[in-house]
Structure formats: structure tokens, C-alpha cells
Amino acid sequence: MARMRTIKQTVLHIKLTDPDTAVTEWWLRSMLKTDKLKHHMAGNKYLIDIDYLEEYLKNPPEEEKQEVEYGILRKVNG
Predict the structure, then answer these.
(1) Which of 37, 40, 47, 74 is the least buried, fewest Cβ under 10 Å from its Cβ?
(2) Pick from 11, 1, 25: which is nearest to 54 by CA?
(3) Which pLDDT tens digit goes with each residue over 24-62?
(4) C-alpha distances in Å from residue 63, one per residue of 12, 36, 60, 66, 75
């Protein structure tokens, strides 16, 4: 069974296992809002699988870099 926790419970769990962690509620919330981490919603609460988060932190996916081509006109979205 998955070990699901809220944001505050997740940060508390991480801080208990690693007191010097750099993971904060703000970072975790921003990762969830941008859909960079898998999560479930229970009403208006984010639920995070602790095991998945630990695996994500051990092996983060590589982000795709967007190459900027200089000297070429591009469409401005706005």
C-alpha cells in the first residue's frame, strides 16, 4: 500500500530522516503545482507518495533544455 502524505507531513517525514535536508514546503508545493511530481488530490489537498518522492530525489529526471537560436525572428506569445 502506498504511503500517502500531505505536503506538511511529507516535509516532516523527510526532516526526521535527514535533519539537514534542503527540501522545503515551498519547493515541494511548487513542484506539485507545475506537475513535475506525481500526486493525487483529496479535495483541495495534495497527497504525495513518500516512496515515489524518495525515488525521485535519488534519480531526478533530466529536464529538456530549450535551445535558443539567435538571429532568427520568433513568434511572441502574449
Answers:
(1) 74
(2) 11
(3) 999 999 999 999 999 999 999 999 999 999 999 999 888
(4) 27, 10, 9, 9, 23
